[in-house]
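B., you asked whether I could sanity-check this one before it goes into the benchmark set. Here's the sequence:
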Amino acid sequence: MEFFEYIWVFSVIERKMKDKILDWLKKTGYPLELFGESILSEKGFQIVNSLIYTDYENKSQREIDLLANLNVAKDNIELDIYLLIECKKTDKPLILLVTDDFSTDSISINGYANSNNPNYKIPFSEDLKIKLPGRYSFGFKVIQAFTDGDEFIHRAANTLLKSIIDYSFQKENSLNFNIENNIHSFAMPILLVDAPLLKLNLDKQNEMQLEEIDSCILEFRNQVSDSPLYFEIPIIRKEFFREFCNNFENLPTSILNFLIANPDFQIKNQTRLE
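And here's what the prediction gave me:
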């Protein structure tokens, strides 16, 4: 075989191998992680991939897909926004279970801006919200169609919960530094999915109603020691993640302006009022 024929055969084999690898990658969540990182980077976030956190139950080291951090400052007030993100891809539809007509198009950041330390409460205004994109809903459980259980979402939600707990623990360790330097922060768990997303509820005749949605809030509870922890986890489809991230173009400035206009809400002054 001539030299150039060897080159041609090798190129064909190499191309087939690349095609196989690309087909395999498309079935995984890795491209979704890269997609999420690219959108957040556009919005000014600093990204940590495969962040290691400590599982509070057994003290083992575990991994979350993305940590995105946005730091802004104004008038000697500093704000850190942390997004803890799990990325999941599946061809099997995800179904949000909805019990009533309650729905909301936004998430208050108020519930995320605190830790277990009673001196570290930042009561942001309820008007400071993050809007959900597209068609949205609110529910208590997400199941995966054509499977026997809900482990797919349950594992992701537990990862987000435990990473938030570890984040809060780290923040408590730096509490005095944050008070001295007037540093505010909040962390939000987010589940980014590349999957069909629907909601299921019963109508007045108790007939099942399915509706496609683009985003939702999962009301997630988990027992930690003697106290249950409650979180609202935004679930955002890939196609609407950029729209969701548009919240962070103006929200940091709104938070800082609110804190400047309301000095008693600043962390350094909050601790003095305790």
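One thing to flag: The mean pLDDT is 84. Otherwise nothing jumped out at me.
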